[in-house]
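Chapter review: from sequence to fold.
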Amino acid sequence: MLRVLPLLAVGACATSSGRVQTDVVFTHYTPLSSPREIARRILPPLARHRLERDLAASHQTMVEQTIDLAREKFDLYLPSGPPPPAGYGLVVYIAPSSGPLELRDWDGSLDSRHLILVSAQRSGNAASVIDRRVPLALLAYENVRVQFPLDARRVYAMGFSGGGRVAEIVALAYPDVFHGAVLNAGSDPIDGKDGNHKPPAELFRAFQRSRLVFVTGDQDEDHLRQDDRSRDSLRDSCVLDIESQVALRRGHQALDAFALDHALDALEARRPVDADELARCDARVAAAIAAALGKAEAAIARGERDAAGVQLEAIDARFGGLAEPRILELADQLAGPR
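The token string follows.
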């Protein structure tokens, strides 16, 4: 569904503001942000397998955490009023820049929905996605979770530009944490060609129940085209709960309050996915995976090792964790004695 957002009317009402806390230092870690767990969820099987093999060969192990929380700062917005009976909702915001968060005029949208917003500093586009941006988003979630009552069903990721691309990554890899995402002028396909890889099957099935909202300015042509590619990839992979919004007279700009209102309305207006449509789509993808693996297995049996290797790499990129465990078994066969 594509929705065009009208211009914000002059004289729109403002709401009372909650509390903004800047330069917050957190102390709680979570196993979800460990490099091993991030690799399990984000890297495709063959890439992860090579990483583990190389570490073992060099007698190295992954560190427990890549982030030293004592050296990190976060910005936190706590809505006005008492917590709702079911707990606050939470938006983990990933910015494209590394400075303190500019809240703009988002407070009314957050207050009316009882949404906490948290954002890590030093998590801009120049930072490593795997070593910093993803673990910082997870640590932001974890520390809000232990300090405030949360409604686990209303935990979302959101980002602008490069931050939107990372918000998509964490939503895809951590659907047991984030149940939806707002992708503001930043997204990637999930076919592995030049985008994101699918996590293990049980996580991907959970991601299929997530709600994704794309919001981009009507003058931001490059990112509108990228959004089209991303949505096509998602639908081809049987991710069906998607809404698209276009903000009028906006270029490559972060959401204003009016566009944020509409995006959050859409994010929380979950629609049931047609079970029959999803089953047909999943069956089509499963058949494609089986056929591709079958071709690679036949190439190995014929001794066509180079061709089999190319086929396995293509399967790894396109299907990611959905091809496990068979792709790893075939890779072991291929690596066996000649």
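Two observations follow directly from the output. The CA atoms of residues 65 and 329 lie 30 Å apart. Residues 1-16 have pLDDT under 50 and may be disordered.
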